[in-house]
Structures are given as C-alpha cells and as structure tokens.
C-alpha cells in the first residue's frame, strides 16, 4: 500500500458514502473515487422516508444528498444497481457480485443496515413493507388511502413516525408492540409511557404486550394476528422491528465482525487499508470506552467525514456523543448520549405537557438525555455528556437555571471512557 492514496472505493452509496466522497474532494484528494451501491438511486437521505415523503410533502427527488451532476462535476464515479462481494486488498480491488474488479488502494465499507424481518412469518408481498429504502417508501405511499387502515408492527421510532404520517394522510394506524410500552427498553418506563400516550392521544390504536404470530396478505389487504388472539386488518402492514448491519462484504473479506464491522476510534477495520463507518460500523467510541453501533443520521455524517480524513492520512477520532431526532405527532423529539445504563432520571419541564428534557445519570455522570420540543437543551446536554459532567441533579431539574451555566461550570475531561 503506497503512502499516498491514489484511488478510493466506497462500498455502499448512501449517506455515509456521500459525506465521505464530499470530504475527500473538499480536502483536496485528486485521485479516483468510486461509489459502489446496490440500490438504483444516487445517494439519498432516509429520514424523510417515514416522515415528509409519506405524508406528501416531499418527492423522491427531494431526498437526494449527492446528485449525479455533482458526482460528474467532481469526478466521483457512481456504480449503481451493483452489489459488491468483497474487498481484496492484495489484488487492490473490490470484487463485484458479477466478478468484475473495481481497482482501488483504500476502501471504505459503508454498507449500512437492512430492515429486520419477523422470522418465519413473512412472505414477500407488495403489501408487506419493510421501510428501509426509497422504493419501499414510494410503495407504501401508494397504498395509503384516506379512510384506509395501516397495520404497523413495532412502535420504535420508525414505526411511530409511520403511524404519525399515516394519520396525517387520513389513514387509521393500528400499531402492535411486543413491549409493555414503546421504547421502554431504551428510555425506561416513564418515557415509554410518555411515548405510548403520545400515540394514543393522537388517535393511534396502539396494542402493547402483543407478540405477532402471523402476517398474511390477501388479494386486497393484510391480516396480522398475535399470540393472544388479537386480529388486525389493514390495506398493508409495515414491519418496523429494527435493523441488522450489512456485514457480508466485510465477512467475505476476512474482516472482524461482531454486531457490525468492528472499527477502532479511527474507523479502521481489522484489515489494513479498509475503513468502515455509518450504520454498519461497530465503533470503539472513546467517550464510552466500548464498541457501539448506532443507526443515526448524524453519526453517518460524522463518521463518514472522519473516515475520509483518516483515509487521507489525517488522524481523526470520532468521539462526539451520539445524537438523533424524530418528528412525530407534531412534536420534535431528540435524544443524545447512551442510555444503556443509568440509575437516576431527572426531568426538567413536564411530560404531561410534552415539553421536557429528561436527563439520565449513572453514578452521578450524565450519560444521556431525551427531550420533547427542547432542541436547545439537548445541545447543552450533549456538551455536558461530552465532558462526562457530574451536574447537580437539583440544578438540572430547575427551569430557572440555564443549562449553559452548567456547561460553563463543568470542566472538560480528556477522552478515554470508563
Ligand atoms: C425510515 C428511516 C427513517 C430514519 N429517520 C431517522 C431520523 O429521523 N433521525 C436519525 O438520526 N436517523 C434516522 N434514520 C437513520 C439514518 O437514515 C441512517 O443512520 C443512515 O441512513 C445511515 O447511513 P449509511 O450510509 O451508513 O447506511 P445506509 O443508509 O443503510 O446505506 C447503505 C447502502 O449500502 C448499500 N449496500 C449494502 N450492501 C451492499 C453491497 N454488498 N454492495 C453495494 N451496496 C451495498 C445499501 O443498499 C444502502 O444503499 C432513519 C432510517 C430509516 C430507514
């Protein structure tokens, strides 16, 4: 491998890939850039697929993130509708599914994730939808008709956003969720109840504690049943039960894989010359001191950028606390940090009025925050989390104390994790 990269091949042509390609050019890289993507579309954004694209506000073209024109002007070659099989660093190429070789001397895996299925329960059918790509969203949109019904399996963020968009399109959503409350596993019981109430108050028929036992498509609709005997009928069903990382290319290349492609803080995989970023990367996060894989737009952007800089030989650690947003039922929800372990929750504002920020603390250290309609507060919380701050819970809860003051008062700590 030469010291200076001459030709970068990115596997995957979506958010992470687009940001990486843009960063490479903006940082002065003049060599060859090729994006290999198995979807037929130029890179586009996925967040609108469950939101504005479904309730009519946006068209498919509006989701574009890197246009074919930009790619042509910046000599970024798009090989779309083309699946990659593996990276062969000895041969200096990515091998495509048809055996063709795409030459390169640096490689980025940005293969993302795919929708999880209900094992053994689903057959491929146009009315059974897994919302991951633009084509899925357009197919779903075509099935939404005012006065109709949509069954949604899973009340996570994607399922809830689809329910919200369905309502806005005049469709009655029936949501079936296995847990006692939506998102309680991640956010805890109180916030889970808040999310459940949000759905019900807005007219969603939400069934919790229900395990789906069959999904059947008929000539003009779908029938979903649960182990307890619940039967839900609709024009279509959206199965929104999470996502799985696309690790085949990494595995075929002999790269270490465990819940995604394992990468260090510089996005390096176990194979020299190959980096990974975005939804597929299980990243050794310096702030938390452990491997974490997330499916967040912001992470795709930041890791894509960091990976590109590292490919160019400019060591860049991606160590921001994670952040994502969700728009549903007229509310903007945001989350930052890692809520996996916490022993105390402090709420500022009111859950009943859907105007709050909830702080999660572990041994006094702020680890995560979740907010409704409080983007500014989330921004401050993110800074506190990055500093591993130990704010006084009474001050966190006190609306009269500016969070910016707590940020100013907290000393920055060196990265390293616990
Ligand atoms: C419906 C929906 C709504 C979302 N809403 C939000 C939101 O509100 N907020 C938020 O923070 N995040 C949201 N996200 C998550 C966000 O979109 C993802 O984090 C982001 O798209 C990840 O980008 P990526 O490029 O890493 O992976 P992906 O976007 O998954 O792209 C990977 C690409 O690689 C392709 N690929 C896979 N294998 C191969 C192969 N062998 N050869 C060639 N190509 C391959 C895939 O087909 C895909 O095109 C949402 C996601 C979805 C699906």
TrEMBL record:
Gene3D superfamilies: 3.30.390.30, FAD/NAD(P)-binding domain. Its cofactor is FAD. It holds the Pfam family Pyr_redox_2. Residues 323-406 form the Reductase C-terminal domain. GO terms for cellular component: cytoplasm. PANTHER family: APOPTOSIS-INDUCING FACTOR 1, RIESKE DOMAIN-CONTAINING PROTEIN-RELATED. This is Pyridine nucleotide-disulfide oxidoreductase. It comes from Streptomyces radicis.
């Amino acid at each position: 491998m030469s010291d200076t990269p001459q030709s970068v091949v990115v596997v995957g042509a979506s958010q992470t890939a687009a940001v990486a390609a843009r960063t490479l050019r903006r940082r002065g890289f003049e060599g060859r850039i090729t994006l290999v993507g198995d979807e037929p579309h130029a890179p586009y954004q996925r967040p609108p697929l469950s939101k504005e694209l479904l309730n009519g506000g946006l068209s498919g073209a509006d989701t574009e993130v890197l246009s074919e024109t930009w790619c042509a002007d910046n000599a970024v070659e798009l090989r779309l509708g083309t699946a990659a099989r593996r990276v062969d660093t000895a041969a200096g190429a990515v091998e495509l599914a048809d055996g063709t070789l795409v030459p390169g001397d640096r490689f980025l895996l940005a293969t993302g994730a795919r929708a999880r299925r209900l094992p053994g329960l689903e057959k491929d059918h146009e009315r059974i939808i897994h919302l991951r790509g633009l084509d899925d969203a357009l197919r779903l949109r075509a099935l939404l008709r005012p006065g109709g019904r949509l069954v949604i399996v899973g009340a996570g963020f994607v399922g809830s956003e689809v329910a919200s968009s369905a309502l806005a399109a005049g469709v009655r959503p029936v949501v079936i969720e296995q847990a006692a409350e939506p998102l309680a596993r991640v956010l805890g019981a109180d916030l889970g109840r808040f999310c459940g109430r949000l759905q019900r108050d807005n007219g969603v028929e939400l069934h919790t504690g229900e395990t789906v036992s069959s999904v059947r498509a008929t000539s003009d609709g779908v029938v979903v049943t649960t182990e307890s005997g619940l039967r839900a009928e609709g024009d279509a069903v959206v199965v929104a039960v999470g996502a799985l990382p696309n690790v085949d290319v990494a595995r075929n290349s002999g790269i270490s894989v465990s819940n995604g492609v394992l990468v260090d803080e510089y996005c390096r995989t176990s194979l020299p010359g190959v980096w990974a970023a975005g939804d597929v990367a299980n990243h050794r996060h310096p702030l938390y001191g452990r491997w974490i894989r997330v499916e967040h737009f912001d992470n795709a952007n930041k890791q894509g950028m960091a990976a590109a800089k590292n490919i160019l030989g400019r060591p860049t650690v991606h160590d921001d606390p994670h952040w994502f947003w969700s728009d549903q039922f007229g509310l903007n929800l945001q989350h930052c940090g890692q809520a996996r372990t916490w022993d105390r929750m402090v709420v500022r504002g009111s859950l009943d009025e859907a105007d709050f920020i909830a702080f999660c603390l572990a041994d006094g250290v702020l680890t995560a925050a979740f907010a409704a309609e409080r983007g500014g507060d989330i921004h401050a919380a993110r800074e506190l989390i990055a500093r591993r701050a130990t704010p006084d819970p009474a001050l966190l809860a006190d609306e009269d104390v500016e969070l910016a003051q707590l940020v100013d008062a907290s000393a920055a700590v060196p990265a390293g994790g616990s």
